[in-house]
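Operator note (shift B, R.M.): manual run for AGR2 protein requested after the automated queue skipped it. Running by hand, logging everything below so the morning shift can see what happened. Input copied straight from the record, untouched. If output looks odd, do not overwrite the archive copy; leave it for review.
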Amino acid sequence: AMEKSYTSMFLLLVAISCALAKDVGKKETKETTAKPKLPQTLSRGWGDQLIWTQTYEEALFRSKHSNKPLMIIHHLDDCPHSQALKKAFAEHKDIQKLAEKFILLNLVYETTDKNLSPDGQYVPRILFIDPSLTVRADITGRYSNRLYAYEPSDISLLYSNMQKALKLMKTEL
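Run finished. Output pasted below as returned.
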C-alpha cells in the first residue's frame, strides 16, 4: 500500500510539473489566477464548504463544548467503496445541509480509540458521538456484519441516521 501511495504521489508531482511547464509560456493576469478557493485539505472532498476538524481530540473537544454531535467518517483514498460513498455524500444536498449541525471529522487512518472500531476497522464506516462523548452504537447502517458501513445506495439511511443522532442528543442531554 505504501509503494502504491508513493507511486501516485510521484505521478501527481509529474503531472503538476508538466502542467506548470506548459503554463510558463502563457502570460497570465492577476485576475485569472486570484480566485479564492476553499482549501480541500480537511474536507478531502466530503463537502468543501463544511467545517471539518483536524484531529479526533479536537473533534471531541468541539463536540463537548458546542453541544453538537460528532460525525466521524473513516475512509481511505484508494478504496473504491470510500470514493463512491464520498461522491454520494458530497453530492447529496440535504446531507450537506444537515452536516452543518455536526462537528465533522473524516479520517484516513485509524485512531487508537477502540470505541471507534466497535466491530472492526473497515472502511468506509461512519460513527456518531454525542456531546457527552458517548459513541452511539445504536445508530447503525444496514449490515449486521459491518454495523457502521454505508454504501452510496444507503445514503437516505445515512441521512435519517444523522437526523436520529441530532434527535437523540436533544432528548437525552
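Quick read of the result: The mean pLDDT is 84. Residues 2-23 form the longest helix (22 residues).
Leaving this for review. - R.M.
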